[in-house]
């Protein structure tokens, strides 16, 4: 397996096993995955900035074992930025987790070289002292049930956009790289996660009431056939969503990709298909 030293953002890093196939269905190698992240660092680094990063690591590729990693990996170099935060639900903050902060390309390459295919982040950032700030965005996760797909998600996305615009919030769509999509709307950062969750839950329940044949606000799989589950719970301060521009560990190397509203509108009307996009297509 190939290995080499590279200079990245003023750091010397060793990247290894570059010819290891991580996506057998497409023959995509670890070297190609690293190249994708380096090539699109300008897009993904602002999405990761100041957010503690949870990684899903697939060191042997998407058909092998995987694990979630919140804490900084063992053996991480001293120069790698980090933030220590109380574990959600812990008593008086006695239990803590130390997350990496992806501040530049060197940190990104270091984490991806460990097999971190997916990068997940919360809806809040940390300040210069490492304290958690109130959420600076809300997220609505659109998860299609059996018999539904991105066309139905697009129809629901337009309904959500309309409701958010009515209260002065501008949203942006992201196809998730898995089955559905997310909508993000920026917030001024003055409301806590519980309040944001409550508002988003109310939005989901109202849309489910008004469009019962298309939307459900309940997670039960028995209620989701041919409908889109409007998941408001990702606004919980302890939860994370896939970072826009991150790869997904699916059969193909699909990307959580920001989209234009015109694409969503065309898909909702049936004038064009909206598909999950691979890193090669990006």
Features:
282 residues; alpha+beta; 6-stranded mixed beta sheet; 4-stranded antiparallel beta sheet; 6 helices; 18 strands; 25% helix; globular
Question: Your description of this structure?
Answer:
The protein has six helices and 18 strands. Helix 4 (150-166) packs across helix 6 (261-269). A hairpin with a 2-residue loop joins strand 1 (3-8) and strand 2 (11-16). A six-stranded mixed sheet has the order 13-14-10-12-11-17, with helices on one face. The protein is an alpha+beta fold. Helix content is 25%, strand content 26%. The model has no long low-confidence stretch (mean pLDDT 95).
Distance between the termini: 27 Å
With strands numbered from the N-terminus, the spatial order across the biggest sheet is 13-14-10-12-11-17
State the order of secondary-structure elements, H for helix, E for strand: EEEEHHEEEEHEEHEEHEEEEEHE
* CA gyration radius, whole angstroms: 19 Å
- Summarize the amount of helix as a percent range: 25-40%
Largest β-sheet summary: 6 strands, mixed
Structural class: alpha+beta
- What does the average pLDDT come to? 95
Low-pLDDT runs of 5+ residues are: none
Based on CA inertia axes, which overall geometry fits? globular
């Amino acid at each position: 397996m190939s290995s080499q030293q590279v200079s990245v953002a003023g750091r010397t890093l060793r990247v290894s096993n570059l010819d290891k196939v991580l996506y057998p269905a497409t023959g995509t190698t670890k070297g190609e995955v690293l190249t994708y992240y380096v090539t699109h660092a300008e897009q993904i680094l602002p999405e990761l900035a100041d957010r503690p990063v949870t990684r899903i690591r697939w060191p042997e590729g998407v058909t092998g074992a995987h694990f979630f990693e919140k804490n900084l990996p063992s053996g991480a170099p001293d120069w790698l930025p980090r933030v220590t935060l109380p574990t959600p639900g812990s008593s008086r903050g006695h239990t803590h987790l130390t997350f990496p902060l992806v501040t530049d390309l060197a940190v990104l390459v270091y984490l991806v070289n460990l097999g971190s295919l997916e990068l997940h982040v919360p809806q809040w950032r940390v300040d210069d002292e490492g304290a958690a700030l109130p959420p600076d965005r809300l997220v609505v996760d659109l998860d299609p049930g059996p018999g539904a797909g991105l066309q139905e998600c697009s129809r629901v996305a337009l309904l959500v956009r309309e409701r958010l615009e009515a209260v002065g919030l501008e949203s942006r769509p992201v196809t998730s790289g898995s089955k559905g999509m997310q909508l993000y709307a920026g917030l001024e950062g003055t409301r806590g996660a519980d309040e944001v969750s409550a508002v988003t839950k109310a939005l989901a329940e109202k849309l489910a009431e008004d469009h019962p044949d298309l939307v459900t606000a309940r997670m039960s799989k028995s209620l989701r056939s041919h409908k889109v589950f409007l998941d408001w719970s990702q606004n919980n301060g302890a939860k994370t969503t896939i970072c826009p521009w991150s790869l997904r560990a699916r059969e193909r190397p699909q990307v959580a990709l920001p989209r234009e509203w015109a694409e969503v509108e065309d898909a909702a009307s049936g004038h064009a298909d909206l598909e999950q996009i691979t890193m090669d297509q990006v």
